[in-house]
Amino acid sequence: MAPSGASAQTVLPDINVIAPSPLPPRRSPPRPATAPQRQTNAAPAQAAPEPPLTGGIDRDKVPANTQVLTTADLDHTRSPDLLQSLVRSLPGVSVSDQTGNPFQRDLQYRGFTASPVIGTPQGLAIYQNGVRVNEVFGDTVNWDFIPDVAVHRLSLVPNNPVYGLNAIGGAISVEMKNGFTYQGKEAEVMGGSYGRIQGAAQAGFQDGNIAGYVMADAIKDDGWRQFASSSRLKRMYVDLGARNDQSEFHLSFAGADNTLSGTVGTPLEMLQRQWSSVFTWPQTTHNQLAFLTANGSYSPTDTLTLAGNAYFRGYWQHHLDGNNTDAQFCDQPAPQQLCFGDGSTPLNGPGSLVIPTSATLGQIDRTQTNAASYGGSVQATSTAKILDHPNNIVVGMSIDRGHVQFNAVSELGTIDQSLFVTGTGVIIKQDDLAPVSLVSNTTYTGLYATDTFEITPRLALTAGGRFNVAQITLDDQLGGALSSDNRFQRFNPVVGATFKLLPNMTVYGGYSEANRAPTPLELGCSDPSRPCLIDNFLVSDPPLKQVVSHTVEAGLRGNFAPGPVNGQVRWNLGVFRTENTDDIINVAVSSTLGQGYFLNAAKTQRQGVEAGIAYNSNPWNIYANYTFVDATFQTSMTLPSPNNPASQGNPIFVTPGDHIPSIPQHRFKAGIEYAVTDAWKIGIDVNAVGSQFVVGDQANQNPKVPPYAVVNLHGSYQVTKNVEIFALVQNLFNQHYYTTGTFFDPRSVPLSLGLSDPRMFVPGMPLAAYAGLRARF
Q: In a 10 Å sphere around its CB, with 0-12 CB exposed, 13-18 middle and 19+ buried, how is residue 536 labelled?
């Protein structure tokens, strides 16, 4: 069944199977080596029939609301980039924004997050070609490393611990293209608002049992915010493959060199004056990637497949961020000297550092992360019948090792009237706070098995589990305060069933558990008495516990033909509840943005409803879906919230039932696409997101971030068999809305700005229009 929020698969046929485990099942059917498969005309490359999945499982027999996207859903004729495509096509998915950059947004699903911002508690496992790509230091997800043009298939899988660490909210598995799944040559250019210019080219070939695929793209976007929201992306993906009747092997490489600028939220009073205004800047991130993967499979019989992969992933990040600071002018008798944290602790120890008292102090934080990860997986899949009943069993194991060198320094600066932070050349040196040089070594091992057994043609039972072991070692290069040795382990079960009430209606239900080990970053920053500037500083701390999730999910899904008219209606209705024990949250303790610590928040809960319907019939494709997520704390807590106007400098008191900030309760999506002619298509879609509490308001004492709705248009025209033009309009009615919010200290900026309201928000992008051209050869 196609995802209810996705556009119709007008080119590829509907895909009714899904991988039951991280390693994708073998996709290529056996073909004689003497039958070369060359593409000799310029017909659209995507028109080739989708090869069947060997070892996949019928999606209607999965006891969860799985969703699958194909290249048609990620097409730039409908959305300009990967994250926008996921928001448009995946029910229950939304994005929030911490950086002000369109390629560094947080993806949210069922109240869990996959974010590129280090320090954000992560709750989704992301896989690319069977390799977990959550970065080893903070489990972050760099969405800018995944070129949407090269994606063949994307699956969203909730309620399945087989996907390993961090899958407490679910997992996303991305399968990239290769020469067996894509043949042809294609080039695309697109440009439009805010200096957006991008180009991409891809080519795939198959010659008998040998195939190859190559893709490269480049994106330049100046951004719509003042001073600091530009993006420069350069990416490539290459795959070489070979196969015969029983085996298949692929060697792939992904590389990227991306420079991304952005800003945190902007004070509300500044946004009211000018929508594009920014807070302290500059803020730049330079991400580089070298990712080499080898995948192989061997099928000695028609019912047994052995598969495995091995990989090396090199990741380098340099981050620069202009911020406010805890440096201040000292109290009497030395008001022109500088102190840190209070008015009596000299900055960098006793000295004669003097800065004019008229200056507004800030700091420039610089971090460098050099990460290398490597490992592999092996897996056996059997589809042999048991007692003459269809059965699909998967058994596998994985090991992933990571080595990270993390360095951080802060330079004292001054903030001018445009909120630009200029460095003074003075490096802040405070015991147990800065600078930082840390080496982390991680080893993650997993053993898993899952089995789907058809008791009757209508009833299927799924059961399995995974045993995870996480070993994390921290080695302080400047002393011993950060050094520690940590080990976490757990077995997580899954059980569920599906039953066909009618030939076209299925009821499903399941229960699963999953765990998330604290990241090296979180382990290095969890002492309330010694907070750190998250992403920059780490301090020694008491140990954190691992997060354990318990998920129950149930629902109905089905399809029917609406009377005598051509077409099909697909629908789904489901409920879910996830309870997390020892959930890890980020707590702010200082007026300095981002300064805080991590703690185990005992118990949290995320529960809700998912409903969707889609009608596909030439020339109409129509869909609508709604998701309700109620995310709450289930344990009483007393937390600091220094800039929260409701706290007046005192701690806030969280009680069971208070809502977790930054998680909207309501999401509604709908869209219509109409083929005016065989060559001309037009479409409109709306994405509505409900209100949410701002970050730092765990006690729910302040006004919420307002709800918003954004309307988008798209259209395409096939000029010839080989040439297509398309256009997109984002935020058609130029709505002003906020994606997330938090608090700041108005005293930390020049008094001449006249700021008094401590609320700050990340504004949504205004009206934008793009046009492009695609040529196939």
A: buried
pLDDT mean by block of 10 residues, the chain; 777 residues: 38 65 70 40 43 74 94 94 93 86 92 89 94 93 96 93 94 96 97 96 97 98 87 97 95 97 87 90 93 96 95 96 85 74 79 73 91 97 95 96 93 89 88 80 97 97 97 86 87 97 96 92 68 46 79 96 83 97 80 65 94 93 96 93 84 95 96 96 97 94 96 97 97 95 86 90 95 96
Residue type at 400?
A: D
Computed on alpha carbons and rounded to an integer, the radius of gyration of the chain in Å comes to 26
Distance from C-alpha of 620 to C-alpha of 292, rounded to nearest angstrom: 42
* Residue 605 vs residues 133, 546, 599, 627, 630: alpha-carbon distances, Å: 26, 16, 16, 16, 8
Question: Rounded to an integer, what distance in angstroms lies between the CA atom of residue 597 and that of residue 524?
Answer: 9
Closest CA to 366 of 315, 312, 406: 406
* ∠ CA 715-717-720, rounded to 5°: 165
Pairing of strands 125-128, 171-176: parallel
Return the amino acid letter for 175: E
What is the rounded distance in angstroms from the CA atom of residue 700 to the CA atom of residue 1? Answer: 39
Distance (Å, whole) CA 185 – CA 64: 37
Please choose, from the candidates 322, 299, 303, 286, the residue with its C-alpha nearest in 3D space to the C-alpha of residue 246. Answer: 299
DSSP-assigned states of every residue in 150-216: GEEEEEEE-S-GGG-TTTTS-EEEEEE--TTT--EEEEEEEEEGGGEEEEEEEEEEEETTEEEEEEE
Q: What is the pLDDT of residues 271-287, one digit of tens each?
A: 999 999 988 888 899 99
Sheet of 171-176, strands arranged across: 67-70, 151-157, 171-176, 125-128, 131-132
CB 106 within 8 A of CB 119: no
Residue 152: phi and psi, rounded to 5, are -90, -40
Could you tell me the pTM of the whole model? 0.92
702 in Cβ contact with 692 (< 8 Å): no
Task: Compute the half-sphere exposure of residue 493: CA atoms within 13 Å on the CB side of its CA.
Answer: 7
Tokens representing 112 are 């869990």
Cα pseudo-dihedral 510, 126, 202, 14, rounded to 10: 10
Q: How far apart are CA 216 and CA 212, in angstroms?
A: 14
Give φ, ψ of 731 to 5 degrees. Answer: 55, 60
Structure tokens at 586: 């980020």
Name the token pair of 709. 């709705």
Q: How far apart are CA 350 and CA 335, in angstroms?
A: 14
β strands within 332-455, DSSP E = 338-340, 361-382, 391-415, 421-427, 436-454
